[in-house]
Fold these 3 entries.
Entry 1:
Amino acid sequence: MPTFEVDDPFWPHLRKMLRAEAYIDTSKVLANNFGGTKAGWMPPSTRVGAVRLLRSWIQAVLLAGHYKVAGQVLWGDDNLWVDQRFSMQIWEKVPKYGEIMILGAGSVGKTYGLAAWNVLDFIVDPLWTSVKVVSVTQKHAEANAFANMSKFLSSSAIPLGMNLTASMLTANPTDKRHGISLIAIPKGDKGVGRLQGMHTVPRPMHPKFGTQSRIRVLMDEAEEIPEGVWKDIDNVLTGKEGTDRIKVMASANPRRREGQFLRRAEPVKGWRDLDLEEDEFWISKQNWAVLRFDGAKCENVVEKKLLYAGLQTWDGYKRYLMMDGSPEYFTMARGAPPPQGSIPTVCSPVILDQARGSYIFVGATTYVSATDLAFTGVDAVVTAIGKYGMANGYKNWDGTVVKFEKQRMVLEVVDVFEMEKKPTEEISADIISNARLMNIDADKLALDRTGNGQGTYDVTKSAYGNILGISFGEKPSKKRILEDDKMSPQDRFHKVNSEMAFAVSYWAEAGFLKFAAKTDVDKWDYEITDRRYVVRSNKIEVESKDNYKARTGRGSPDRADSVGMLLHLVRMRESIRAYILEKNMRTGVEKGYTSEIDQLEGLE
C-alpha cells in the first residue's frame, strides 16, 4: 500500500471523483499521486476491485492516524467541519485518552463530533471493534448519536459495505458482538447489567491492535444515564490497557454537580475554581479527561454571523445572555455546571464536605439508632447508627485536628447500612437485636412508621418499649432546629420530612453533626446534596422520594432519610441544642442567624 502526505492539496478533487462513483479512475489517481505505479502497484480494472482497494486505502489512512483526512475524503468539509473549534478539540483529545467527557453548551456539536470520530475509528477495524451507544431512550438515541453514525456510514463517498439496521451497524451480520449497536435505557430503569459481559476477546494478530478486540462506549446525554450503567462502566474499565483498546466517551449539557457525570468530571480543585473564560480542558479528580465546549467561543457567536449551520448562533446565545446568572445560562450558553445555590437544594456540597470527620469526645457517649423502612418494593431498609456526647474538637478524614473554644454536645453518625428485607416480625426482631447488641435502649431508637411501616413500628414498640415513631407526612415539630432560628419548624416547613432534611444541613453547617469514615458518605452524599425543594405558601417542601427517583434516575434517598431520622430522634428526646452564635445559648436569639430559608420568606 503506497504512503502519502497529509497536506496533499487535492482531497476535494478526490472526493468529487468518488461522489461521481468514478472508483476505477480514483484508484488510478491514488496510484499516480502516492507513488504506487513506481513501486509496481497497479490499480484494479473492475469496479468491485477498485472499491475493495479504496476501502483498504482509507483504512491505511486511518491506521496512520489521519482521521481528519479520511473524514474529508468520505464526507467533505461541509459535513465534518474539520476546522471548526470544537471538532478540532475532538480530533486532538479523543485519541489520546481512554476516558473522556465533553461538557457542552446547547448546539455545539458534541454528539455529532463524537459520532463522526467513532465511525472513523470503527472503519479502521470493523470486524473486531465493538461500539456501544448508550442513551436514555430508544427514540432519543435514534434521533441523535446513533442516527448520525448510521448516516455517516450510509452516505460515505466510498461504499463501506456495512449492514445497517435500526439498532445495529456491522460489517458482519452474523457477528452480534462486534459492530455499532444501540443500548436504550427505558425511563425508570436503573440500568444495572446493561453492559455486563462487555470485555475484549482474542482476535487474529493485528500489526497495530495486537491480539485483542477493541471496545468503545459512547454515552449520549450522559447526565440522564442511570447509576447502574456507570457501575457497569467502572467494570468495563477494569480491563483497560493504555488508551486505545478500551475507550469510554460521555457528553452532556452539565446541570447537576451531584450526578454521576459531573462527579467524574469535577476538576481537582473543585468546581468553585473553574474559570469560565480559560478552562476548556482538564484531568478530573477521578482521572477522566474533560473537554468543555463553551457556547461563547463558538464561531457563530464570536463572529455574530452564521458560519456553521446547526451550531449555536449569536441570536440563540443572546437569549441565554439575558438570563445571565441563571442555571440555563451556565448550562446551555457556557457549557458549565450552574454555581451552587442557583438550583435550590437542601444542602450544599461544601457544607457536607466540612461534616466529614469524627469528634474527639470527652467522657461517656450514648448510642442511638434510626431505621428507614422500605416504603416500596425497590426501596431499601436502611439503619443509621450514631453517638452523642460532649466533645472538645474533631478530626477530619485527612487527619487534621480542630479544637473547639468551648466543649459542646454533638452527634456523630458512625455507620449507615442496609438491612435485609424481611416480613414484619422478622425485620422487627433484627432491629431489636441490633439495638441490644449496641446497648441502645428503646427511647434511643427511632423507626419509620410511614405507610406500610406502621405495622413494623407497632410490633417493635410492643416488644421493645418506648421507641420514637416518625411518619414522614406528619406535621413538623415546634422545636427550633438551631437556637439562632427566628421561626419554628411548624412555621417554616410543610411536613416533618422537610424539617429533618434541613436539620441535617443546619447542624452540619453549625459543626454539631459529623459523618465518620465508616459511613462511606462520600459514596452516597448526593442523596443529601441533590435533594431539591420548593417554597409553597411561604413554607419549604422537600421533593418526595418518588420525584427524586424520577428526576435523578437513582434509587430512593433512604440513607439520607435514615440520618435525618437519627438527628430528629436526638433533637426530640435529648437536651442537645445546636447554634451558630454561642451567645444565643445564654440569652436567647439576640442576633438571629439568617439562613437561606429566612431569606425565602414571602417568596413563592
Entry 2:
Amino acid sequence: MSIPINNSFDKKRIGIEIGKGSYGSVYSMDDKTLVFKHYNKTGASQICLPFDFIKEASAYLTLKMTDNKEIIINKKFVGLTMFKYAMDLNRAIKSNYVKEDNITSILHGIVTTLANAQEKFLLHRDLKPGNIVLTISEENNIDMSVIDWGISSFSYSKHIQHKFNYVQTAWYRAPEQILKYSYNNPTIDMWSVGIIAIELINNKVGFFNGTSGKEQIQKYFNTLPISDGVDFKNAFHIYEKNHGINLSVGKNIKFVDCSDKLYNFIKKCISMDPLNRLDPISALEDPLFSDYVKPYICSDMKNRIDGIASINIDYSAVLENTIYMSIRSKLINSCILVLHKLKWSVHELSRVVRLLDKCMEKKSSDYMSSPHSSSESLSTSKKEIEYIYYYISVIITMFYNNMMCLYEFEPEQILQMLHVNIPPTNVFYEIWTNVFVAINNNINFKTFLMYDYLINVDPIDGEIYSQICVDLISDIEHLKYDDYTLFTYTIFKLSQKNVEVKCIKDVVFDFSIVKEILM
C-alpha cells in the first residue's frame, strides 16, 4: 500500500476549519467525504517537516490503514487528506449516541487496531475518546477508526533507551507514566482502553479527571484495585515519599455497573502493574470478544519482523555515486561521533546509514535539486560533499526528534557538530521532502539489526557485538544482501569469537546462507 504525495495542492480544495489541536487544524474539503488535516511546521527555523506528521503518515502505512488518501507536502501545506466520520467518541459519549449494546463492538474495534499495531512493533500512546472517530448508521452498525498517531512509537529494537518524556493525555495516562518506572510497553495503550470503557459505561468523559499527575494517581489509587509487582510497588512508594502523599489503596469493588465479562475485561486493562495488564494481542482472546471473528495476528517473532517494511537500495547506483563513495567511510565515522553524543546505539547508526545510502543512490545532479551552497566559490565536488552532509543532518534530526517526541534538534545543530556550513533554508526543505520520499513516506522501516529481537547477548559481550555490526554497516558490500542474511552473518561472527548467543524459542540460524559473504 502506498499513499500518493502531492506537491501541488490547490488551496481551493479546502473549506472551513472544523477542528483544532496542538498539531494544527482540520478543514472541510470540496469532496464532502474527506477532511484535510494540516500540520503546523515545527522547529525554530521552520524548515523541518513536523515530526507528528511524519509519525502519523508512517503509522497509517505501517498498519495498512485506508483512512488516508493523500500526503500533501509543499511550502504552504503539510498534511493528510482523510476520510470523514460523523463524530469522535468524545462527542458520542457526551451526546448519548452510544448504546449499551455498542460498547463491546467499539472496544473490539479499538483493541483490533492496537493488536495490529503491536504486531508491527507500534504503540499509539495517546488513546482517548477524541482520537477515536466513528459513524453509527440507522441500523446501529458502527464504522470507526483510531486516529492521531502523531506521538506513536516504533520499537525497532528491544534495547532502545528513551529519554523520559510524558506521553498520553493526562486523564488516560497509565500509572507507569506518572510514576516513571516503565517505558514503551504495549500495555500502555490498554490502560487507556480500560479508562475509555469505564467512560462508555458511565456516559461520562473525564471519569478520572485529575488536574495534575499527583491528583490523577490519587484518583486511580482511591478507586481501582491494586495489583502486585515489585517494580510497581517500589515506584509508588518512591512517589509517595517524593510528593509527601499517602496513596490509599482502592477496594476491589464493582466500580462500574455492567456484565461480568465486561467488568473482568476492564479489571485486566487497569492493572496498575503493566506486567499484569492485558496487552492488545492477548486482549483479543478475552471472553468479552468470544462472539467476534478473530483477526489474524502473527505470533512468530521472525515473521513479524519479516513483515516490517525495509528500504531496497540499488547497490550499483550507490557505487556509481563516486563523490559519495570517496567519503562514505569518513561520513560513517562522523555519524558515529554524533550518535555517541546523542547516546544512541548501533541500531540508530544502522538506520541512519541505510537511509543515507538510499538517498545517495541517485546522481548528485538529482539530489542537489537546487545548486545552492553556503559558499558560491566552492568547486562542484565540494558542493556535492556539502549536500551529502546536509542529508546527514536532516536524517539524524528526523530520527532523533521522532524518537523523543519533541524538537530538541535542528539540522543546523547537527551541521555545527560536523563543522559544516549552514545552507539557505529552502535547501533544507527540499532535502526533508527528498528524504521522506526515499523511505516511501514511512519512517517505520527495519534494518538487519531489528532481528536481534530473536537473540540475547550477554551485556559483557555487547561491545564485541556492536563492533561486528559497525564493521558490517561500514562495508558497502552489505547492500547486496537481505537483512536476515546479514543478521545471520553477525551471529556467525559472534560464534567465531566464542560469544554465546541465546536464541528465543524455535529460532535456529543456518550459517550456510552466509557463504557468499564469507568468500
Entry 3:
Amino acid sequence: MLKYNCRYFSGDRPCEFYKKYKVKCDSCTYYYPIKQKILIIKLDAIGDVLRTTSILPPLKQKYPESHITWCTMSNAKELFDGNNLVDEIVTIEEDAHIRLTAEEFDIVINLDSSKISSAIAAMVKGKEKKGFVLNQNVTDNIRLQVIVVDNDVEKSAEHIFQEYENRENITFEYFVQPEKIHIYLQG
C-alpha cells in the first residue's frame, strides 16, 4: 500500500529508497510523514521572489516536519535549485492550476498582491490562508492580510497601503509578530 503522505512520495515515480534498496511502502523504515502541507505563492519579479525566500527559515523552524510547495513563474524556478527548505516548485505556466485545485494545504501564504495570485490563493483548498486573497464572496473584493517580512514594520507595509488605500472594496487585516521576526504565523 502506498503512503501518499510520505515526504519521499513523488507520485509519478518510485522514491529514492525503492530505487536504491527495493523497499516497499508497507515495510519502509524511511517513511517520513508530512505533518503540514504549506503552499507559498509569489509570482512577481524574480528579485521579489528571491527576497521573499527570507520567510523560509522561520517557517521551517515553526513547522519542521512540513512540506513546502512554492508556486511561482517559470523564470524564477532556478532560484530554488539546491534550496532544501522548499520541497517542490509549481509554476503557473506548467501545471499550477491542475495541481493546486487537486491538492489541499494546511496553510496557504500568498505574498503577491496581484489579482492572479490572489485568485490562486482563493481557489486553492487551504485550512488557513494568509496574505493576499481575493474575497470569495464578493466579486472584485480583496481581503489583505499584510505579512511583515522585515524588521521595519512601517516601511515593509507602506507601499501596500499606498497602493490600495483609496479603494472602497478593500478590507485590511494587519498582523505583526511582537518580536518582529520574519513572518506572522498564527497558532
